[in-house]
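Before drawing any conclusions, I needed to go through one protein's amino acid sequence and its backbone structure tokens, quoted below without any editing.
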Amino acid sequence: MNDTLKQIGATGIVPVVVLNKVADAEPLAEALIKGGLPCAEVTFRTDAAEESIRAISKKFPDMFVGAGTVLTTEQVDRAIGAGAKFIVSPGLNPKVVEYCIKKGYPITPGIMTPTELEVALGFGLDVVKFFPAENAGGLKMIKAMSAPYTMMKFMPTGGINATNVRDYLACDKILACGGSWMVKGDLINAGNFAEIERLTKEAAGIVKEARG
């Protein structure tokens, strides 16, 4: 497994962040670091995403910041050029996956079925995103689907929150969980980074409890 993915696994929870303003990037990253989750998946859903990743990478070079919702090879290059250490996509686009592999970029594509999982295996991947996790059957689905594929780890995202994340993290099939409850858009937009830090500390505590 790629060293970056190992680090993500050690963190346990990947905050999934939507940033509308580059000015929010550094204080958000600082809140996550102080809260005990030095990791973030900045989604490429906004115009501020690329520059936000660049700002975080420059200010906090040791933070594991990646790019999420990456749909094209052009976005891959922009994200990596800005300093993203890993790529996450909502689905499994063979063109994007192959491009990342050839470039040596860690990618975690989204899957929801055994067929998609086997495509990921065919690319030599050992970690996939399970998305949208709760809507697609949650932990029960992951356990059932993963039984024949003992080498694969999952990063479930979608519907993960402070209530159910413990159960996911306690499962040995889970590398880490993606979640946004500690980085909600209204908190970011209000500049309430103290509350984000508090929620992040709670989330980091859950990881310790769940994994001993």
